[in-house]
């Protein structure tokens, strides 16, 4: 395990999880020499710029407007449709450099800056979208859409989005840091599934899977996926071993999946002869 991955594993298994640091460590998969302190300094500077507009004790509404001005208007953080096809949109250090990214990563920027201002902030899952809540989720709070430059979401707008997605208000939930990280890595995997097959694309999907496996909770199917990716990249032995591990884990619960994984493992080992 690389030092960056070891540190990622330590961060995601600590309480409370340092979400900003964990997201920056994901970027180390693309830039092994990434200096996370540079990105942390950017977040510190953004918070310092927002301090006059978000004084201590600000209401959720005041904090939302102050952050919108600083992050949305002045710094230009927002998202665009084409960002969904760019892996940089899922890497926090790149989002800080470019001022654009996926809703999830832009929400992380907002949460990290808000935390530095002692403003309660959390990611909220809506149908097909992630936004930020400011304030007390059980009492006075405001929902903002960082992808739209920090636009405040009115109750009517939220209700319309829920209805369009077939959700009830009870389906809305606050995302824990581990949920955010798994979604981030799932977004990377989803992006690779839309790209033309290539070794680089497979390698990207592999690191997204392997980081997901370091999270305290993750879908067991990721082990099967890791095995298949390793085989595809030519590491037949390690791939076969991972497929066999997956088969042992699901044996009894899903005999069909276990049998298929063992068959794939045998085929992978046959490539070594």
Intertermini distance? 28 Å
Helix content: 55-70%
Pick out the low-confidence regions. Answer: none
Helix-strand makeup class: alpha+beta
Whole-number count of domains: 2
What is the tally of helical segments? 12
The gist of it:
By secondary structure, the protein is of the alpha+beta class. Helix content is 57%, strand content 9%.
How would you describe what is shown here?
The chain is of the alpha+beta class and 273 residues long. It has two domains: 39-176, C8orf32 fold (Roll); 178-270. The protein is built from twelve helices and five strands. It has helices at residues 3-12, 19-27, 36-50, 60-74, 92-98, 103-116, 155-165, 177-193, 199-212, 221-232, 236-250, 255-270; strands at residues 121-126, 129-135, 141-145, 151-153, 173-175. Strands 4-3-2-1-5 form a five-stranded antiparallel β-sheet. Helix 8 (177-193) packs antiparallel against helix 9. The chain is elongated, with a radius of gyration of 20 Å. The model has no long low-confidence stretch (mean pLDDT 95).
Give a quick set of tags describing it.
12 helices, 9% strand, five-stranded antiparallel β-sheet, C8orf32 fold, 2 domains, alpha+beta
Write the layout of secondary structure elements.
Blueprint: H1 3-12, H2 19-27, H3 36-50, H4 60-74, H5 92-98, H6 103-116, E1 121-126, E2 129-135, E3 141-145, E4 151-153, H7 155-165, E5 173-175, H8 177-193, H9 199-212, H10 221-232, H11 236-250, H12 255-270
Antiparallel strand pairs: 1-2, 1-5, 2-3, 3-4
Helix pairs in contact: 1-2, 3-5, 3-6, 8-9, 9-10, 10-11, 10-12, 11-12
């Amino acid at each position: 395990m690389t030092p960056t991955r070891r540190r990622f594993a330590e961060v995601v298994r600590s309480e409370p999880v340092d979400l900003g640091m964990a997201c920056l460590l994901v970027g180390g998969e693309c830039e092994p020499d990434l200096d996370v302190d540079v990105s942390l300094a950017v977040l510190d500077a953004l918070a310092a710029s927002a301090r006059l507009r978000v004084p201590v004790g600000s209401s959720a509404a005041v904090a939302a407007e102050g952050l919108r001005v600083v992050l949305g208007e002045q710094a230009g953080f927002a998202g665009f449709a084409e960002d969904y096809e760019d892996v940089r949109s899922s890497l926090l250090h790149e989002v800080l450099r470019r001022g654009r990214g996926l809703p999830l990563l832009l929400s992380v920027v907002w949460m990290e800056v808000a935390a530095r201002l002692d403003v309660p902030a959390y990611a909220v899952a809506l149908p097909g979208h992630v936004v930020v809540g400011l304030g007390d989720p059980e009492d006075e709070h405001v929902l903002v859409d960082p992808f739209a430059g920090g636009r405040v979401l009115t109750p009517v707008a939220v209700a319309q989005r829920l209805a369009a997605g077939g959700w009830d208000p009870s389906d809305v939930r606050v995302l824990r840091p581990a949920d955010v990280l798994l979604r981030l890595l799932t977004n990377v995997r989803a992006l690779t599934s839309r790209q033309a097959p290539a070794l680089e694309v497979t390698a990207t999907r592999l690191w997204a899977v392997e980081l997901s496996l370091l999270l305290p909770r993750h879908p067991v199917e990721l082990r099967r996926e890791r095995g298949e990716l390793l085989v595809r990249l030519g590491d037949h032995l390690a791939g076969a071993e991972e497929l066999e591990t997956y088969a042992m884990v699901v044996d009894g619960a899903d005999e069909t999946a276990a049998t298929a994984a063992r068959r794939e493992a045998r085929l992978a080992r046959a490539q070594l002869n």
